[in-house]
Amino acid sequence: MTADSQLPLDKFSIWLLHRTAEAVEAGEVSEALLREVQEELSSRSELSTFDRYELAVRQLQELGGVSREEADAALEMMQEYPEGMGERFIRWLAEGWLEGHRRAYRHRQLG
Description:
By secondary structure, the chain is an all-alpha fold. It contains five helices and no strands. It has one domain (11-110). It has helices at 11-25, 31-44, 49-64, 68-78, 85-110. The longest helix is centred in the C-terminal third of the chain and has 26 residues, at 85-110.
């Protein structure tokens, strides 16, 4: 796969880019965060299935503040969720992650 032939973004990735862009436009987070999200998502298309799983575990650990074992268990459990439930759960965690960035940005702006 060449750099020009990337996989299309999934629904969650599009949603995350949109939510981050909205936060940038509202002055709630820096543009650097949007660039970071874009770079992270573009690099995913080059990952193997194993690497994608490892990335999902690492992100779940960061978003949820959980251990490796808890992240593995959560991902396994999400496979059994009815369609759409897993994505809603991940979006909920991502909203928390974005809120953390909003708070940090406000703190830096006021600080």
